[in-house]
Design a protein that fits this description.
The chain has helices spanning 2-17, 23-27, 50-66, 70-87, 107-115, 188-194, 242-247, and strands at residues 30-32, 38-40, 94-96, 120-126, 131-137, 144-145, 151-152, 158-160, 167-171, 174-175, 181-182, 200-204, 225-228, 231-234. With 255 residues, it is α/β, with parallel strands linked by helices. The protein has 2 domains: 18-48, no CATH class; 60-247, Rossmann fold (3-Layer(aba) Sandwich), CATH 3.40.50.10420.
Amino acid sequence: MFIFRSCFVFWYREILHTPFPGLKERSTNIRVIGSGIPEYSTGIMPYTPVHVQKKVLRDQARNKRSALSSSEIEEKSSSICRFLRDLLKESDPVMVYISKPLEVNTKDLIDFLLSSGKRVIVPVIEKDTRTLRLSYITGNSVMVRSTFHVHEPVGNEMPALPCEVKTVVVPMLAFDQAGNRLGYGAGYFDRFLAGQPHLKKIGLAFTCLETGCVPCDTNDVKMDLIVTENGIFSCGNYCGNYNEAVAGPDKDPIH
């Protein structure tokens, strides 16, 4: 018995210290991206699970966003709203998220859309089913603080159907230029968007939240356009002529 145990311990130690075939060569292809997550330069999936990568990126994005002052957030939000005014000129109705502190503020956008005679739809969180239901609103005054501290038209809902929505404006915690969006992790918007492929999807975020590559899986839905305080970015996921619709024939195209 003693001999058997000794042999097993020796074998186990050898296995732990013996590299697998090709492991040494493969490790030379690993580089570290800005978030500190290892990534293969060859495009091979990193060892770190996607949900772990997302958590790291969320923490970094929250820190960057928290570093912005209130005046910076309002100034950047106003710039984003100005871009959206032209972008949404032909859209009716428009689904817009109700912003929370530190997010791109959508209050002025909603007021502008309503004053322009457009119909505005907002999401209402159904926490038990982890889904969104939709409601038309007549103004920001009907909002009350509700689930996850989000303001919703509780008690003043006017039900809307997803098929009625043409364009949706979505919050982003982080993003990349390919249109990949990082949300808060609950998946409310991804589940909604996955079931409504006809929607034009516009993501809002501050420029400082852009990252080289957002880790994603099969449940994540890409944006068609991303709007920051620096401009409108087409992600190539929508075939509509946004360059002409937004910039016009005599203006610079979307960058």
